[in-house]
């Protein structure tokens, strides 16, 4: 789509324009993509979310390749949420639950990329299940939502530590890291936590302890989309091995880092 169209769609989805730009360059030619998007935007603007869902689900069934279209996915996920909320306000709890549970099928990507939408879905679902006299299910979903909120808080702590990693006293980093609830973190944030801790220990010349925590990063991060963090970790491990005179492993870690990208 044109830049103006992209800006419009991003505003409707409460996303920054840049969120879609890299993906946009890898998709099918613009006229085709624009056709798919404009087929549902009118209904979305008029808050006819049920119609949006029906149309996009039909597109995806007819052309499964469109599942790779990030814009369509975003519109669909937001439509699931907004329709679910509409149903709750109208007292149509069964329909609302069905819509929000479809949204929750995207849990893996939502938790990583759109946590606030997933949190909102859990809260809406919890309320509808309770109003529908399924208190056990509603309370379980509320507990999951609270756990997600705690993960957000702990992830924010990790991000703040990472931001000050190279201009803060290493011992202060280590002390603050010790107060983070590691088990509340998702795998990527957990890997960053170990990287931060190891880097602070490396700054204190505690190379052997740093290596143990860098190794935790390697164990935690296996997906290639985290290659940047893995490369930084392997390079730091190489330096640690060199500092303790283990040049064989130092060379091996540098070779592994060099092969990542």
Descriptive notes:
- With 261 residues, this protein is mainly alpha-helical.
- The chain is 77% helix and 0% strand.
- The chain is built from 14 helices and no strands.
- The chain has helices spanning 3-12, 18-24, 30-45, 49-62, 70-89, 93-104, 107-113, 115-131, 135-163, 170-177, 187-203, 207-220, 227-243, 247-258.
- The two termini are 30 Å apart.
Summarize the structure.
It contains 14 helices and no strands.
Key structural traits:
261 residues, mainly alpha, 14 helices
Structural class: mainly alpha
Rounded average pLDDT: 85
Low-confidence stretches: 19-31
Share in β-strands: under 5%
Q: Report the sheet with the most strands, covering strand number, pairing sense and barrel closure.
A: none
Order of helices and strands: HHHHHHHHHHHHHH
Globally, the shape reads elongated
Please tally the helical runs, counting DSSP H or I stretches of 4 or more residues.
Answer: 14
Oligomer designation: single chain
What is the terminal-to-terminal distance?
Answer: 30 Å
Radius of gyration: 23 Å
Percent of residues in helices comes to over 70%
Number of strands: 0
